[in-house]
Amino acid sequence: MRKILVTGGTNFVSRFTAEYFVKNGDEVYVLNRGSREQVEGVTLIQADRFNLTDELKDIRFDAVLDVCAYSGDHVNALLDALDEFGDFILISSSAVYPETNPQPFTEEQELGANSIWGDYGANKIAAEKALTERVPEAYILRPPYLYGKYETIYRAPFVFDCALADRRFYIPESDRWLQFFNVRDLCRFMDILLTEHPENRVFNVGNPEMISVKEWAELCYAAAGKEPVLVRVDDSFTVRDYFPFHPYHYYLDVSKQQALMPEVTELGEGIKEEFDWYVEEKPEIFRRDYMGFIDREYSADSE
Question: Which of 146, 152, 197, 293 makes a 20 to 30 Å CA pair with 204?
Fold first, then answer.
């Protein structure tokens, strides 16, 4: 039984990660403020990473899975509080690649500012730098859009709400190409790293194929047993007013991941699983007012 520390453990990716490794038979510790419901079977270390004293010093973790680091300060605060540990995995982001880089983005490309993601991407670069300077043998994962059970970002849940209400779905006139990765596959890949310890330390992770906005919307509606009526919106409108993705597409080369984990969750299957969870659990989600914008701007069409 491995002792695994998961930062967070109560929200989307970190919650799924904690649950996954508990079910895997590992002894899972979670580091969070204790303000939300905890995953059954974890050991809670109730603290803020910036106010840690000796809470982690007496535990030798076989692995640290830092799901919630968004800056170099986040990484350094955790490392300062740890004593001995085995593996360290940081969940970074594909936002570390400038959108001007040639695509598909590869792990060897130079990192830099991304005008779409702004400070988020810059801070993820700083987190990676802080980690590699202090723990050069750590693993860094760069996913595209993550989805799946426990999602709290109003992306697929927004489309589910539209489907359940039999609303038309509005998409940009110009196609956007999206790349996804199921949160379960992310956990499966972390488990592979902890087991096989490959020499490579940085991995793009994701489904190898991209999907159009139209196809993604159709899959989300299909999960609800519906077929969408799609309405194309002129590109002069600000896409983020009515649609849950930035006006940006990118393509990650995930061949290094595929060499270790050839099979990933089929997107339609994963979306259906998320839909079933969403309908059953009715989770609390911050819902951006996409529908309100659509109703104001396209009142004649939004029924």
Answer: 152
Q: Which uninterrupted H or E stretch holds 211?
A: strand 211-212
φ/ψ region of 66 (left if φ > 0, alpha if ψ in -120 to 50, else beta) reads: beta
Closest listed residue to residue 264, CA positions, set 216, 206, 211, 222: 206
Cα–Cα distances (Å) from 125 to 14, 44, 73, 202, 247, in that order, read: 20, 29, 12, 13, 22
Summarised one tens digit per residue, pLDDT across range 193-252 is: 999 999 999 999 999 999 999 999 999 999 999 999 999 998 877 899 999 998 888 899
Measured between alpha carbons, how far is residue 274 from residues 13, 159, 216 in Å? 13, 12, 14
- The span from the CA of 50 to the CA of 61, in Å, is 19
- List the structure tokens of 250: 């990118």
Total Cβ atoms within 10 A of residue 237: 15
SS3 at position 292: helix
